[in-house]
Amino acid sequence: MPTRRRAAALAAVLLIGSLTACGQEARGGSRYKPDTGKGGTIGLAMPTKSSERWIADGKNMAEQFRKAGYKTDLQYGDDKVENQVAQIENMITKGHRLLVVAAINGSALTEVLQRANDAGIPVISYDRLILGTPHVDYYASFDNEKVGRLQGQYILDQLKLKKPDKNAGESYSIELFAGSPNDNNTKYFWGGAMKVLKPYFDSGQLVVRSKQTKMNQATTQDWNGGIAQKRMDDLISKSYGDQKVDAVLSPYDGMSLGIISALKSAGYRGKDLPVVTGQDAELASVKSIIRGEQTQTVFKDTRKLAQQAVQMGDALLTGKKPEVNNTTDYDNGKRVVPAYLLNPVSVDKSNTELLVDEGYFTAGQLK
Ligand code: GAL
Questions:
Q1: What is the pTM of this model?
Q2: Is 100 inside a domain boundary?
Q3: Is residue 238 part of a domain?
Q4: Which of 46, 208, 257, 334 is deepest in the core (most CB within 10 A)?
């Protein structure tokens, strides 16, 4: 930017800063720009297009914000932190009124969100909690710990493990996968699943033959299906020989499909395939469930999540109080972020029609 234009831009930011300061007094401590009601542009910063769900999240929010009377600027960061930071910076420079961010790295946005705050722009953390900054106003997500519990419980149910019993005399083998190490959700999914599974590790009814039982041994950078496939290949060749894997905890559909490819390369077919969990009810995985390969997924309706973000954003911009249902659990290290958490639902072969009834997919798509 030429120096003169840069100086003008800086002056504009300072002016906005001082307007915000006036606004603060006028609105009893609120640090936002004074209300101007509907209108203006909402910046939507999504992580990647490599997964169907984020494409749907972006599209749903853009549609719903437009219906509520706003323009939108939807950007995808291609799973690269520097892209996402640059996109958010750009949104601030353009004077967008609100940012909705699904972070690529939950801990990497401190500086850019300081700038958003200086410009009086509120921030909603979408699906993934942004960490280490006080400048996150609200959080819209699902009950992430419950996602993990649903996955763990599904495995127990399929293996007919009803209660921990040291004398059961029978054990099943299981391998464990966790999500991306830079996503705050990873530890909630893992924690929820472990809460349910641990008593059966302790009783010896579930055995992790690879001995990779710690979260940091099981994480999968960027939730990448290829990385999960490679790790599953290694686990099978190093720890299984002629033994069978009975269950695989997978926290996300894109990884589940990679894991299933590895299992198929190792000769698993049809009923031999282990129980493999997942998350997001992505079309390819739902079809895999119907074919009898992936066993389960966790359905999180992205339309409802978008609705919550829009409800929060619209309330913030029109001087109302966003609706929340959790004000205690989502501490990002700098503040407890008020949250609205939606309910995740377990889906397997027995209830895929739920996705059609809910209008998430058409019956034709699932054929
Ligand atoms: C998580 C999200 C999951 C899944 C995963 C990979 O943050 O909560 O639903 O989408 O990212 O994209």
A1: 0.89
A2: yes
A3: yes
A4: 46
76-108 residue pLDDT tens: 999 999 999 999 999 999 999 999 999 999 999
Q: Which atom of ligand 1 is nearest to the CA of 298?
A: 9
Whose alpha carbon is nearest atom 4 of ligand 1?
252
Angle at which helix 144-158 crosses helix 185-202, to 10 degrees, equals 30
> Is the distance from the beta carbon of residue 146 to the nearest atom of ligand 1 less than 6 Å?
no
Bin 333: left if φ > 0, else alpha if -120 < ψ < 50, else beta: left
132 and 154 assigned to the same domain: no
C-alpha span between 352 and 332 (Å, rounded)? 35
Looking at the fold, whether 175 and 292 belong to one and the same domain comes out as: yes
Lookup: tokens for 283: 């079309």
CA distances from 75 to 83, 84, 193, 206, 225 (A): 10, 8, 32, 43, 23
CA-48 nearest atom, ligand 1: 12
Q: 294 and 324 share a domain? A: no
Residues 205/168, Cβ–Cβ less than 8 Å: yes
User: 281-311: per-residue pLDDT in tens?
Assistant: 999 999 999 999 999 999 999 999 999 999 9
